[in-house]
Amino acid sequence: MIPLSDLLASGPSTSDDGGEGSHPLLSLALAGMMDDVQAHSGAVYLLSPDEQVLEMAVMAGLPRAFAAPWERVAITSPIPVADAVRERGLIWVAGEEDMARRYPRIAVVLPYPFSVAALPIATHGTVYGAVFVTWPGSHPPQISDSERDRLIAACDRLALRLRRAAESGSPLVPEADFLGPAAMAGTTGAIEAVRMVARVPDGLCSLDVNGHLTYANPAARELLGANASTLLGKQLWSSVPWLNDPVYEDRYRAAMISQHTTSFVALRPPQDWLMFQLHPSRNGISVHITPARGTVQEMPHDKPPQHTAGLVAISHILTLASALTEAVGVSDVIELVADEIMPAVGSRSLVMLASEAGRLRVLGQRGYEDSTIADRFDGKPLTAHTPGAHALATGVPSFFESRAELEHIYPAPSVTRDGMASWAYLPLIASGRPVGTCVLGYSQPHSFSTDERAVLTSLGGLIAQALERARLYDTKHRLAHGLQSALLPHSLPSLPGLEVAARYLPGTQGMDIGGDFYDLIRTGDATAAAVIGDVQGHNVTAAGLMGQVRTAVRAYTAVGQSPGKVVVSTNRLLIDLDAELLVSCVYLHLDLERHRARLARAGHPQPLLLDPDGRVHILDLDGGPLLGVDRRAAYPTTVVPLHPGSLLVLYTDGLIETPDTDMDDALAALAAELEHAADQPLDALAEHLVGRATGGIQGGDDTALLLLRPQR
């Protein structure tokens, strides 16, 4: 991969053949690509020097502010251009629904009908960046072969030009965004058109791609209550106070992105309602303004809009909030902030601090090769005169645009020299309670604008909420994992002449807790008892009952009860406990000298037996109902030959039960899988069977597996 710095170093622009010239290579390449496929907007990204971040180099057809949350994105980000680089291929997003399903973070910020194609800019061995182009919502749901071929060819040509530019030492210079042709008004026809529009009683305005007003007829100026000098060259929502509402700016964004006519009604104080209709094209928007029909009570607002944060800032917060909802544990929060938020805000380092027992503790860091730098934050008292402690204690964020500014307030010994040039200290306050501080460092002096400070402050609140949830989750996870570990056997006993393997996978994602259980109990030099079972439910209650059942089975085994009697006794105990949960199980006695097993079954899936010759049998065991149903239930004992080299497979239904799959078919598939994998070591076979059943991820039910093989 070629670093961005090699391509954007100061120097002349590059011509198409790699030599020096005046062509804005990226802008022209992007504009040509859009014309080839009739796209209405697009952007080119190039790789940053560390090859982990894509930086937007030029945008066309839309204001760059529309893509503000994605100006800088990590290669790992779940967005189309990053996916295109990672997969080295075209990514197609068909429209609103497809975007919401595959890229919800983008759909939250840009909930408009449009299609996207993203492609890598790469030669055979080198990735230079990526490009995306968009079409209005009217585009067909599939990209055509012609569009695909033209885009791929254009990206291949651009990659070759970038390679030649780097090889020839003629790097690119930064280019202005391409926003379409400038307005022309030098002909007689254009002058007459202006006169004609001036005579129209309705308000008519023209906005360029950035939303700046380039023309307003007299009726429009009268309806807006502003003169030409106030309006021209400015955005309507910034020059007309009562239009300064994100709702109205959103209609403009919707028109530009979808290329469909949009409209809204706004209240001009004190009580005049105006209808705005926005007619977009690739070069801008024509705005039609008329008095709205109806009374004030019929209109959607009952008061003039107040000044609010800009829509760009809101977009930033929305996309970051959407990303933070994906975090589960504390490590997830730190990784997500580092991978998604640091590139978005341009910081180069991160330290996440938590408040514990009156001191700051480092939860994680990113950007410091020397971890001892971040460790210097650790253990600082909350009363210490440091920016991290001050932000947490007061709940007020601090922004330092230079080290001199930082050390003016905090003398050098009280702050860490971390190699950064600017810092943002964001207090993490959740539910009115301080939970930590997020420290963002910038490698170059950084000026924090008012909007950026607002975004970062809001971001601190979002991180705090996510961090509080994550720490609560981690606490519950440790408790649940400890409970599950205490209830399941830490290891299985060793019995001469018997090979054993077991696996357990909880169905409740992330909690590592459930009601499935297994056990192996040595009863003699050549005998043992084994049990596998499934308690209804996937929670702490099910796990607690599982522990009681497992203890009961061990107790009844110790007094020498037969398999059927052990299951009968456990059933009666469960009814006496009045647990309101049902249990299935298979219990057996193994006799390695007599080469047999005696089994009893209570509403549990039938075990499988693999003969030494490689044939698999589904053991048709007589059995009784689930434990906890009928105090008088009987559970007959079945004797099964168990020769050396055979394999007895005990499992819970999570191993075979999947949505829309017949249980008999699933059982037959498991039997076939055993026949093909019988020669594997038991541990490898157990891993294979669990992985096959779950696809490598946790499913909707717990899974337990116990494999028993008498040795030859």
Keywords for this entry:
single chain; 712 residues; alpha+beta; Beta-Lactamase; six-stranded antiparallel β-sheet; six-stranded mixed β-sheet; 27 strands; disordered N terminus
Structural account:
The two termini are 56 Å apart. This protein has 712 residues and is α+β, with helices and mostly antiparallel strands. The strands form five sheets. Strands 3-2-1-6-5-4 form a six-stranded antiparallel sheet. Strands 18, 19, 20, 21, 24 and 25 form a six-stranded mixed sheet that branches. A hairpin with a 2-residue loop joins strand 10 (272-281) and strand 11. Helix 17 runs parallel beside helix 18 (540-558). The protein folds into four domains: 4-168, GAF domain (Beta-Lactamase, 2-Layer Sandwich), CATH 3.30.450; 188-308, Beta-Lactamase (2-Layer Sandwich), CATH 3.30.450; 326-479, GAF domain (Beta-Lactamase); 492-710, PPM-type phosphatase domain (Phosphatase 2c, domain 1), CATH 3.60.40.10. It has 21 helices and 27 strands.
State the CATH superfamily name of the largest domain. PPM-type phosphatase domain
CATH topology descriptor of the largest domain: Phosphatase 2c, domain 1
- Using the CA coordinates, give the radius of gyration: 34 Å
Mean pLDDT: 81
Shape: elongated
Placed side by side, the strands forming the largest sheet appear as: 3-2-1-6-5-4
The number of domains: 4
Helix content percent band: 25-40%
CATH class (first level) name of the largest domain: Alpha Beta
Largest sheet: 6 strands, antiparallel
Distance between the termini: 56 Å
| Beta strand count | 27
- Portion in strands: 15-25%
Q: Provide the CATH architecture of the largest domain.
A: 4-Layer Sandwich
Low-confidence stretches: 3-22, 181-187, 294-311
